[in-house]
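Late entry, written up from scratch paper. The run itself happened at the end of the previous shift, but nothing got recorded in the book at the time, so transcribing now.
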Amino acid sequence: MSRAPLRPLARILKARARGENPDAIEAENRARRHEAMADKQRQRAEGRLLVLGLAFFCAFGLIGMRMGALASSVPEEPSASAVGNPIIGQRSDIIDRNGRILATNLATHSLYAHPRDMIDPAYAAKELAEIFPELDEAELLKDFEGDRRFLWVRRQISPEQMQAVHDIGSPGLLFGPREMRLYPNGPIAAHVLGGASYGREGVASAEVIGVAGVERQFDSYLRDPANEGAPLQLSLDLTVQAAAEQVLAGGMSIMNAKGATSVLMDVHTGEIISMVSLPDFDPNNRPRVQATGDQSDSPLFNRAVQGVYELGSVFKIFTTAQAMELGLVNANTMIDTQGPLTWGRFRIRDFRNYGPELSTTDVIVKSSNIGTARIAMQIGGERQRAFLDSLGFLEPTPLEMVEAPTGKPLLPPNWSEISTMTISYGHGLSSSPVHLAAGYASLLNGGTRVEPTLLRRDHVEQGPRIVSEAVSARAREMLRQVVVRGTASFGEVPGYAVGGKTGTADKPRAAGGGYYDDKVISTFATVFPANDPQYVLIVTLDEPSENSGDEPRRTAGWTAVPVAAEMIRRTAPLLGLRPQVDTPQQVGVTLTAN
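Output as recorded:
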């Protein structure tokens, strides 16, 4: 770039000829040069300010547009995304109502093989078969020597097994990090928890998914990273659950039953404190589903939820309570019990001859089929069905388990008059023990509907009214009399004022229709304390037989009632219920001197 000289020779010579100072010419040219440089720098600064202003304008415009878009959009939780590894292995814990662990995760390893990297496949197969006895050495060697590039050996291994495999020294045997689902209490609450397995798998991680029970029902919650590992809290009490399982297993053995179930429920909240189904299983090693045979005999079958049975005379209190609510009878109304009661070709009989009539209370205490059927005839089929529907007996339970919808009650195809009579004493309608527990809780807690739940509740949700408080109290008094002087005399537990109703129903034949003569479902539905109800307990035994006498005894009074009484005796103190002991009268004391 050429620049104008500060002292141009032509002007200098002219200035000297005129006698002028040549330095003035230099000063003038220098001033012009500085002014030009200043103009150039000012233009450059103005250009930069313009570009910066445009940049700020665009930025604020984008921010404004984004703010407008957010303001007009529907709010939603952000979803976390993992780059590179789409498998989410973390799974939240499951705890009981007191915060004790029911299910958790354990860091472990998986074992896989790259057969092409093995130096001595035969030696590796031999050593692996010794470490894992369930593996076949010949099959392993066949896989190692084949064309496969990748092979799972074990999905999860213990630290001891990992060290043993490491000692083999084969470069083709590799380990991957993994989480496994651990149930530290073994088979306790197995049917409630259900179990978990692996979904999508990779060498770096594996997806743990629920396969049954609450693990599957709440699978999305347990796997959701947005919960930040918050545990799922159930209504179960681990200590009470363990005690109930121990007592029920002993009772099932003593009574020679093929299966048993129990449900312990809070009458005010509907929370299930304990739910047992026997035989059970260990969810750490969940068995396979039976391919053949009766699925109800499988240890995976949840009798409390999936088992629907004709539960027998435990239904009589519903009939009596409805009749009292309608004003058709009261506790002292005399009911005709002259038998047999004939309807067409059907004959309704009582277990014993109770005479020509009984009071409404004694119909429950003596468990009269004829008396209950006559009360049901006064109610009518339409009103009976509506009442049972209000108690939840016509639909599957809303329990938070994937198995709950399968426990749908079996209803008569035509709710005829004979159906009305038989259903009044527990035949002709099949329901689950959870249905029965919710029905008893709704009837006896003061008469308001409760829904069964496996989730911890901190407050009572008042449901619709089923019967009045007076009818509810009268029903509890009747059930108390059943234990004091009726068919459940073995159910008395000192200090806890137990009330309840027995039910013995013949089992229907699997094929050919009709009922077995020597196979029954025996049930005891109980509430305690009867004067201030807190809990409902249902105990059901499948095909029990008490054989201490000359002849087998299968009725609930001899089988289910003693088991339920022992369960109350064991669990009531764990529930914080103090026994009410009658204080003896003071004895007069006479002071004497030596």
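The mean pLDDT is 88.
(Scratch paper discarded after transcription.)
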